[in-house]
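Entry for histidyl-adenosine monophosphate complex. Fields follow.
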Amino acid sequence: MNDVLPADVCLWHHVEDAIRRVTTAYGYEEIRVPVVERTELFHRSIGEQTDIVAKEMYTFVDNNGESLTLRPEATASCVRAGIQHGLFYNRQCRLWYMGPMFRHERPQRGRYRQFHQFGIEAFGWQGPDVDAELMLLSNRLWNVLGIDDVTLELNSLGSPESRERHRHDLVAYLDKRRSELDEDSLRRLEVNPLRILDSKNPAMRDIIAQAPELLAYLDTQSQAHFEGLCGYLDDAGVPYRINPLLVRGLDYYTRTVFEWVTDKLGAQSAVCAGGRYDMLVEMLGGKTVPGAGFALGIERLIELVRLRSQAPTGWHPDVYMVMLGRAAEAAGLRLAEQLRDRGVAVVANCDGGALKRQLRRADRSGARIALVLGEVELSRRVATLKPLRRDVPQRSVAFDEVEQAVAAVLERPA
Ligand code: HAM
């Protein structure tokens, strides 16, 4: 679990602002769901046999004896909230969210126990056009943030029936090669054989390559859905790669699954992942409402943004107010308020100090301008304006011209 220190918050704001702009551009509305839910919600949605539910949840019993869990993801919470508040009642809805998620995984680069997701969920559309919209939206976010080292991978898990037929053949195939399976795959063979396809163990590569392919088992409708999606992406000029081994680690998916992957983040290659979940609303007690969505790991996205040279650096004030003596403080703080009224960010010196010391603090703050008020300035009703980041001489500015002079140095309208 990480602290985000002030020097990095600027980058977080930059990414969060881009997310807000892009979601608005596609007509998605923000939803804020609690960080804690009843444990049962995740068991029923993500699936008992998944790594998340079996091994990674922060679960505790509260004072009422109720089992609660820190959310490991927010799709289930969006569905719960939608059912509870009638958001799906006779209408479709486009939602987005952002916030912390919790998984007790082995921490490494790009994988944390508290991490942040930005997610999108679209409820009420059955066709592949909304699946394509999700991919276009994420693609736009990469463009806005100047990220070009991510690749879209696609697969279809088909319907529960087609998946069952595939599972049957997959288990029969793997059973024949049981002696070659690693320990993890042997365990998965019993509980979640599809996940074996996701194994990262090189020793399993050959076995997986020859395994029955999900796409060969698709029912006619899922096949048409998948072809439709590929058609929309082709039309929109969004490149993708079909990855028949892409299976995802949550049980609620049907048909489309996708991931945006990168080779820039070491072992944690998935930046953004999601898919369609047409049975989930019903599974959690609602009507039959199709859904599709994705979630993106903000820490991973931030690391990609940081790899670019133009990534914004820390926040700096516009002006540092240097004040020498009690009377100068009174005038200086008034001036600072006037500048703040105009949207100028002013850090006022606190705890006094000699001129040299205050100027050193001004420099360290990263401010572009120091405004100095001492006895001499006060008697003449002027401030000394000292540009700190440009090689221009300081000058005296009358009190009622300070706003304009500051705006000129900042190159903003007065
Ligand atoms: P997920 O694949 O479990 O899907 O997570 C989505 C993204 O969250 C991952 O691709 C990764 O970028 C980030 N992420 C996951 N775990 C961690 C971690 N421990 N540390 C840092 N980042 C992490 C879901 O959560 C689904 N709810 C996505 C979805 C939404 N499907 C449909 N709608």
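NOTE: The longest strand covers residues 93-102.
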